[in-house]
TrEMBL record:
InterPro entries with a match to the protein in the record: Catalase (IPR018028), Catalase_AS (IPR024708), Catalase_clade2 (IPR024712), Catalase_clade2_helical (IPR043156), Catalase_core (IPR011614), Catalase_immune_responsive (IPR010582), Catalase_large_C (IPR041399), Catalase_sf (IPR020835)
Composition skew (Low complexity), residue ranges: 38-50
Pfam family, one: Catalase_C
Domain Catalase core: 81-469
Stated name of the protein: Catalase
Classification via PROSITE patterns: CATALASE_2, CATALASE_3
Catalytic reaction(s) noted: 2 H2O2 = O2 + 2 H2O
Role, per record: Decomposes hydrogen peroxide into water and oxygen; serves to protect cells from the toxic effects of hydrogen peroxide.
Similarity comment text for this entry: Belongs to the catalase family.
Cofactor dependency: heme
Cited SUPFAM superfamilies: Class I glutamine amidotransferase-like, Heme-dependent catalase-like
Length: 751
């Protein structure tokens, strides 16, 4: 934009102010010559994209590769045009007969713009509507050719590009991130033998055993149909009515009521393929397999009160967290682990591996690490990539196959089917984010939004006119594992599917004490939102089959008598192989011991001890944490001795729930101001209740006393210190690396 044009008032063409002459000869707006498409355009868009997204895609490493680059659009230095490429002279005014006259139908510029706008939205996903995604790669760290011919596991060091979308399940597209819910963990591997989608969740089991029940489950958990409430919540009558009548959901309910359902970050949760899948090697031999993603940062969660407050303070909390971490070069990583076993071994288990409400305990079959997932690039465009990506449980590549899990069978159908209405036709595989890197050649033709221009007259096979191409690949192609099938056609389930409580009990027994407390509170809270007492009673009766301790705690939380246990489907359940599995507790994966990407608030006000602020901030930043100075308002303030500081956030716009820890430095005047500010006291009380790491330095200690927070020897996360920051900062860092301090929890909260 040249300087003269930029200097003109933005409404320079507004005719009423410039007379009839100007109306007949409208201001043309600022234009610049079009970039030379053969030279500038693609490098310009690539470099601009790189700046925004933290580095260009490395060839062969990142999913973008050439495929996404071809369709990237960047308007830098370009004139505004219609969709037909006609330059638009005036994007502010519709075409009228006289300045005060009617708008004209022939104004194709206006009509095209508004018509396109009218159709901007597409249907949201029926479930998992709310999500966030990133590009990255999977790196094989152990060749698995003895087990599978699948391309990503072909050799150590091989990298396969991926696009990964995390999601909540129940909420609509604009719902909050921190709802109590299952999280989707969907990975699209762009392998050199076609796309493989591992469409998993952050919990290893599911609510139901058979696809037949899925629409009912979803109708029960979604907002109630008469009034459309509640949004993104399972705490309502229809959900608990359904699950209390569906004892097979009990194991999943334990996970859902645990802190797993309120993760601190997408980067700090596990992922699971859930179903038992099949590995098939080049010789056609098969083993059964379960997939696990384990986060390098460890598994960490929020507490319920915190999740509720975060949803108000920042409904995009998880989306922002993922985006900012990748943008800052701290892309998250997961280890892929596999549990591999034979059909004969599976036959001996006390549960059925085709039942998606059961795990295979790690004590029974160890999880073997085979590779790592790295997410290192944010999408360029949310709609084009995150919204239009279409995962599908049926997308497997040679070397992988399904089992007869009846839930999986329904999924194999559902995902393609749903995209046809969501993405407007059968050609959604051509949308760049969905298109495989492997070449696509077949005789499927036409349909809405077809992009490929198929040449020649042959669209059938066999043919001679096109030399028989494209030809069948035979054993080079995907060959289904020849699993023998026999049996009568009937509706029903295998016997072991009828046992519903062993693994729910296993999960509960494997939790730390505070995790058990959170599960009981979550059940009591959710059931307290249920208005029909009979549903509450039925649910507590079902919990008696899991643990009387749990049922008792929930009944007490609801102020009700303990009901008789719900009758079990089988009288004499099989004895489980494992009764405690430590890996089911969040505490089993504390992470790498660092504080990288943790967020810390330093509370500041006029007169704060600037030296302490910088010393602590430097130490934290040096250890990889993100530091924000939170003041009574944003902007500059005078620290002790007149030095200037700049507050990044305020007590209003950055409440404590958004941080992992907080520091109150000394400075008498500052502490005096904060003591008189109820928001500062509430900040500390919330942080304390949520188990965060806290440090008061010098006079800063007084703010804790004012908030009613007393020192306690047993509380490793509350540091009230005097003396030099050089000594206290490392103590704070060490306490922060423990993430949370549940040892301070009391019920009800003392603070
Ligand atoms: Fe899904 N599921 N699902 N699901 N699911 C969808 O597909 C479905 C199930 C999962 O980020 C839908 O594209 C059926 C289990 C994820 O885009 C739909 C059944 C697991 C995502 C669908 C299940 C999942 C979906 C909605 C039972 C964990 C989001 C939009 C038979 C292993 C993917 C779409 C993304 C999405 C159907 C059960 C995971 C309607 C019928 C079990 C992560 O097709």
């Amino acid at each position: 934009v040249d300087a003269a044009a930029a200097a003109m008032p933005h409404n320079a063409g507004k005719a009423a102010e410039y007379g009839e002459e100007a109306a007949r000869c409208p201001y043309t707006g600022a234009t610049v010559p079009a970039a030379d498409p053969s030279a500038g355009a693609s490098s310009l868009s690539e470099s601009a994209a790189s700046e925004k997204t933290n580095g260009p895609a490395e060839p062969g490493v990142n999913a973008a590769g050439g495929r996404l680059e071809r369709v990237r659009a960047d308007a830098s230095g370009q004139a505004l045009t219609t969709n037909q490429g006609v330059r638009v002279s005036d994007n502010q005014h519709s075409l009228k007969a006289g300045l005060r006259g009617p708008a004209l139908l022939k104004d194709f510029v206006l009509r095209e713009k508004v018509t396109h706008f009218d159709h901007e939205r597409i249907p949201e996903r029926i479930v998992h509507a709310r999500g966030s995604a990133a590009h990255g790669y999977f790196e094989c760290q152990r060749a698995l050719t003895d087990l599978t011919a699948a391309a990503p596991f072909a050799e150590k060091g091989k990298r396969t590009p991926v696009f990964v979308r995390f999601s909540t399940v129940a909420g609509e597209r604009g719902s909050k991130d921190t709802a109590r819910d299952v999280r989707g963990f969907a990975v699209k591997f762009y392998t050199d033998e076609g796309n493989w989608d591992l469409v998993g969740n952050n919990m290893p089991v599911f609510f139901i055993q058979d696809a037949m029940k899925f629409p009912d489950l979803v109708h029960a958990v979604k907002p109630e149909p008469h009034h459309g409430m509640p949004q993104a919540a399972s705490a309502h009558d229809t959900f608990w009515d359904f699950v209390s009548l569906m004892p097979e959901s009990t194991h999943m309910l334990m996970w859902l009521m645990s802190d797993r359902a309120i993760p601190r970050s997408y980067r700090m949760m596990q992922g699971f393929g859930v179903h038992t899948f099949r590995f098939v090697n080049a010789k056609g031999e098969s083993r059964l397999v379960k997939f696990h993603w384990n986060p390098v940062l460890g598994t960490h969660s929020q507490v319920w009160d915190e999740a509720v407050k975060v949803s108000g303070a920042d409904p995009d909390f998880h989306r922002r967290d993922l985006w900012e971490a990748i943008d800052a070069g701290n892309g998250p990583q997961w280890e892929l682990g596999v549990q591999v076993f034979t059909e004969e071994e599976a036959d001996q288990f006390s549960f059925d591996v085709l039942d998606a409400t059961k795990i295979v305990p790690e004590e029974l079959v160890p999880v073997v690490p085979v590779g790592r997932l790295v997410l290192d690039r944010n999408p360029d465009n949310f709609f084009a990539e995150t919204e239009q990506v279409a995962f599908c449980a049926a997308h497997v590549v040679p070397g992988l196959d399904f089992t007869n899990d009846p839930l999986l069978a329904g999924r194999i159908h559902s995902y393609v089917d749903t995209q046809i209405s969501r993405l407007g036709g059968p050609n959604f595989h051509e949308i760049p984010i969905n298109a495989p890197l492997a070449p696509v050649q077949n005789n499927q033709r036409d349909g809405m939004h077809r992009q490929a221009i198929h040449r020649g007259r042959v669209a059938y096979e066999p043919n001679s006119l096109a030399g028989g191409c494209p030809f069948q690949a035979g054993m080079e192609g995907f060959v289904s594992f020849p699993e023998p099938a026999a049996g009568d056609e009937l509706r029903g389930h295998p016997e072991k599917f009828a046992e519903h409580y062993n693994q729910a009990a296993l999960f509960y027994a494997s939790q730390a004490g505070w995790e058990r407390g959170h599960i009981a509170s979550a059940f009591a809270f959710e059931l307290s939102k249920v208005t029909v007492p009979a549903i509450r009673r039925r649910m507590v009766a079902s919990l008696r089959n899991v643990s009387d301790e749990l049922a008792q705690a929930v009944a007490q939380g609801l102020g009700m008598e303990l009901p008789d246990p719900l009758p079990r489907a089988i009288e004499d359940p099989p004895r489980p192989e494992v009764e405690v599995s430590p890996s089911l507790s969040l505490t089993a994966r504390p992470g790498d011991g660092g504080i990288a990407t943790r967020k810390v608030a330093i509370l500041v006000a006029e007169g704060v001890d600037a030296k302490a602020v910088s010393a602590v901030a430097d130490a934290l930043i040096g250890a990889g944490a993100t530091v924000r100075l939170v003041g009574q308002r944003i902007g500059p303030l005078a620290a002790e001795g007149g030095q200037a500081l700049d507050a990044d956030g305020s007590l209003d716009n950055q409440p404590s729930a958004l941080f992992d820890g907080a520091v109150v430095p000394g400075g008498e005047a500052a502490v005096e101001r904060l003591r008189a500010d109820g928001r500062a006291l509430e900040f500390l009380r919330d942080a304390f209740r949520h188990g965060k790491t806290l440090m008061g330095m010098g006079e800063g200690k007084q703010l804790f006393a004012a908030a009613g927070i007393e020192p306690d020897e047993a509380d490793g996360g509350l540091l009230l210190v005097d003396g030099a920051p050089a000594k206290s900062a490392p103590m704070f860092i060490e306490a922060l690396a423990r993430h949370r301090h549940p040892e301070r929890e009391t019920s009800p909260p003392a603070v």
